[in-house]
Amino acid sequence: MSRERSLWTRLAMLFAVCLMGVVGLAAPASADSAAGGDDHKVSWSDAKGGTNEARALSLREVKERGLARYVDTERYTETTPKLFTDTSRASSPAEQREGRSSELATTCWEHWYSYGTSALRGQTDVTWCGDGTWVRYSASGCWGEEHWPTYQYLGCTVIDDYGHPRPDEYWNIYNVWTQWDLCPAWVPVWAECSWHDRPWGKYQYQGDGDIVRLGGTD
Q1: Nearest to 150 by CA among 193, 185, 122, 119
Q2: Any idea what the Cα angle at residue 59 is, between residues 56 and 65, rounded to 5°?
Q3: What contacts 205, CB < 8 A, 6 or more positions away?
Q4: How much is the pTM?
Q5: Helices and strands of the chain, counted as H and E runs
Q6: In this predicted model, what pLDDT tens digit does every residue of 119-137 receive, in sequence order?
Q7: What is the pLDDT of residues 75-125, one digit of tens each?
Q8: Which is it for strands 41-45 and 200-206: parallel, antiparallel or unpaired?
């Protein structure tokens, strides 16, 4: 009898622990949660190997990335970015004049775009913050990877314009151009590439979260 009672006691305790786990998983996330931008995300890809994803950062992510000094945390909102391939949506560069340099961004976004496959690809990551008109923070970088003996990622180049390049200098757009050097015909014994693939892409980022594809490998 004591063994049977002990078994039932253990089963009851196990059920209670599982129930607590379910309740914990079901608890709603706060507006300042790290997951944040999932509800404010857009993505697309094409048959040529190009892949894109853009989303708004949550306020918690902004703080964790050290971007809080660029945003107004009291007015911060997660605004879904918009993606355009029509170059007529691009804006001409305009620099903000003195008088509003103390204003802060109300949303930050990130966009990554890549070319290739899971075995060989290059990617560019862009982060920018805006107040609806002006870009208050901008940064970008590129990288790549290979996962096959006869594939090799050989590097990338990023050239960016406008955005927030220096203190007290703000533009309405942030342009980023990237080119990757991918080798799908790497000869390990010679450590040489017999054929290069150099895809490229250029995008414009605006102060309201809009993204315009200005060109790239088709």
Answers
A1: 185
A2: 90
A3: 109, 111, 126, 128, 135, 138, 163, 173, 174, 175, 176, 211
A4: 0.79
A5: 2, 12
A6: 999 999 999 999 999 999 9
A7: 999 999 999 999 999 999 999 865 555 689 999 999 999 999 999 999 999
A8: unpaired
